[in-house]
Amino acid sequence: MKVKIGKYPRSLRATFYEKHMNKKYGLVDWPENKTKYEQALKWLDDRVQSFYDVFNRLWFWRREQKVSVRIDPWDTWSVDGTLAHIILPMLRQLKETKNGAPEVADEDVPENLRSTNAAPKKNSWDTDEFWFVRWDWVLDEMIFAFEHKLDDSWEDAFYSGERDIYFEKVPGGNYEMKYGPNHTQEVDWDGINAVRDRMSNGFRLFGKYYENLWD
Fold it and tell me: Averaged over 129-156, what is the pLDDT?
């Protein structure tokens, strides 16, 4: 596999109104009734953007993002493993560089992080105290799932003792596994299944919030 993805085409954008509103009210739920200053700022922002769009039409909007993808035959022997090598570092970087957070359903996070357990909001447009924590938790669960997907040895931590097995031929030409005298190995299946369930949930969250994986 060889993937080369260039930068997104850039364009001129007036952002002083947006920056003011985000700073004052947060990333969501801007009030419908704006102050006179905010109305004037929006009017000015629109006029500047109209000026910018002249140059955007002449140059920036004509450009396209350069994407080149080559898939080799072995890349599809295990598509889930192949993609995990790409997805995991992207999720890690996203968590470090993100500038916002989407709405995360209470049902997808532990009870202590749910909006119903947050302190009352001062304004209806405010985000609750766990808004960004919920998204961090979801990202961590995705990262956990893909980390373990790429780690073939994670189950080793749930095995203890010595393994002593052999295979004995039985009537019919088949072989049956037998335990030797030195076999003391024990397996914590509850622990293994708990990790597997957490991985499955991480993959579920990845699918559910796929369109929210933005910076």
Answer: 97
pLDDT above 80 for 70? yes
Do the beta carbons of residue 202 and residue 147 sit within 8 Å?
no
**pLDDT above 70 (res 31):** yes
If DSSP states are collapsed to H, E and C, what string results for the chain? Answer: CEEEECCCCCCCCCCHHHHHHHHHHCCCCCCCCCCHHHHHHHHHHHHHHHHHHHHHHHCHHHCCCCEEEECCHHHHCCHHHHHHHHHHHHHHHHHHHCCCCCCCCHHHCCHHHCHHHCCCCCCCCCCCCCHHHHHHHHHHHHHHHHHHHCCCCHHHHHEECCCCEEEEECCCCCEEEEECCCCCCEECHHHHHHHHHHHHHHHHHHHHCHHHCCC
Q: CB within 8 A of 1, min separation 6: which ones?
A: 69, 70, 71, 72, 75, 82
Name, in order, each residue with C-beta under 8 angstroms of 120's C-beta and a sequence gap of 6 or more. Answer: none
Mean pLDDT highest for which of 28-32, 53-57, 131-135, 161-165?
Answer: 131-135
How far apart are alpha carbons 213 and 22 in whole angstroms? 20
* Mean pLDDT of the 95-117 span: 95
pLDDT at 78: 95
pTM recorded for the entire structure: 0.73
